[in-house]
Amino acid sequence: MQTAPRPVADKATPDPDLARLVAAGDEDAFRVLMRRHNQKLYRTARAILRDDADAEDALQEGWLQAYRAMPGFRGDSKLSTWLVSIVANEALQRRRKVRRAAEVIPMSVDDETGPGAVPEARDESPSAAPDIQAMRGQMRRLLEARIDRLPDAFREVFVLRAVEEMSVEETAAALGIPEATVRTRFFRARSLLRESLAREVDTAMEGTYEFMGARCEAMANAVISRLKAA
Question: What is the CATH number of the domain that holds 58?
């Protein structure tokens, strides 16, 4: 009796099926999963750490943790929510370590060259005219700078709810806080942003903290390389 052929993972494969394939050691399925969720998870880490390089490190470590824990994933929550909680926890741990190390070195929140500085943003849309690209890039930089200045608790909730459009329930599960707290922090975060950005908030949301293309692929390759090395 012939056994059924092993399913092949592609862009159309549902998350639960990908999880089962990854748990069975399917490298291709893991690559598909990383490409699908890298943007969301990077934004999660970036919202917590306020630094591109630190966010990428947390994302890579989070993926390795997720891979090792995948056999134990039972589907009690959405896979994306489970992944966000892993990366958020990793990022929060890193932030706590940095703060403990920096307690004796006061740093100005206005320091433009410090860890919280916003890097030059890029608009990689091939169809946009140069003036449109410049305008969108400027708007993104402005929005990212304002988001970075939000208090930590407000910023984490805002990015998951407004940028990633996660539900209140998903955000609460991912961050391990009550749903009522998510609603309160999100409302306050929006109020703070609107005070400084007015109508620019809603029009500049798309495209913030991009983690696509070559950066996404490099992350997938790095994680696979570390798995093979282990």
Answer: 1.10.1740.10
